[in-house]
């Protein structure tokens, strides 16, 4: 839980009482590789914090999985489009490794916002970070060539690229695995 507390402190200061509240609202859970934190059609009822492990977000488009995002250790995970209004999700969130998470419910985060001194500020800053990331990714899909998207992936996920199967990386970039192989060869030939 110390990693979670330190992560919250990167957004807002926490008093001893604030820390105590956080410690009662978050609960630890262990998941095996391949398990889902969320399945499309279900309501996202939790915000997750990854202590160890790796997850991917994906949608199923006519039987084809399209990977949209990855989260790793020391990051929050949530489908906010489902979580905030408490409506069914259209995304899946799946572990790519055995993963240990800290979980807070929708009711719990509302209590956190109300009882922790800078709780609401924490929520605003965290969601602003998610918003900027999502808008940047959407813009890249419309304006960047696949090779550019791949080099951005390598830049954004340098520390975990080796932990992600190539077919998920290809899906994230928006190309077939064979095309990714060609891009990787071209890039390695430049160095």
TrEMBL record:
KW Kinase (keyword) present: yes
Pfam families in the cross-refs: cNMP_binding
UniProt keyword annotation of Transferase present: yes
Ranges for domain Cyclic nucleotide-binding: 21-112
Record keywords: Kinase, Transferase
Gene3D superfamilies recorded: Jelly Rolls
One example GO MF annotation: kinase activity
Protein name, entry field: cAMP-binding domain of CRP or a regulatory subunit of cAMP-dependent protein kinases
Organism ancestry: Bacteria, Pseudomonadati, Bacteroidota, Sphingobacteriia, Sphingobacteriales
């Amino acid at each position: 839980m110390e990693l979670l507390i330190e992560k919250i402190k990167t957004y807002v200061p926490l008093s001893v009482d604030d820390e105590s509240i956080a410690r009662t609202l978050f609960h630890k859970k262990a998941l095996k590789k391949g398990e889902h934190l969320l399945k499309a059609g279900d309501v996202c009822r939790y915000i997750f914090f990854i202590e160890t492990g790796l997850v991917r977000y994906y949608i199923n488009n006519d039987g084809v999985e399209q990977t949209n995002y990855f989260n790793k250790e020391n990051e929050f995970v949530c489908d906010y489009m489902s979580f905030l209004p408490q409506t069914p999700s259209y995304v899946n969130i799946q572990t790519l490794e055995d993963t240990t998470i800290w979980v807070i419910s929708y009711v719990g985060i509302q209590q956190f916002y109300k009882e922790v001194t800078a709780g609401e500020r924490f929520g605003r800053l965290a969601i602003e970070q998610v918003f900027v990331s999502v808008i940047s990714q959407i813009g890249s899909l419309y304006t960047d060539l696949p090779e550019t998207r791949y080099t951005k992936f390598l830049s954004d996920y340098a520390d975990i690229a080796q932990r992600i199967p190539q077919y998920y990386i290809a899906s994230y970039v928006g190309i077939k695995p064979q095309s990714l192989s060609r891009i990787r060869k071209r890039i390695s030939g430049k160095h």
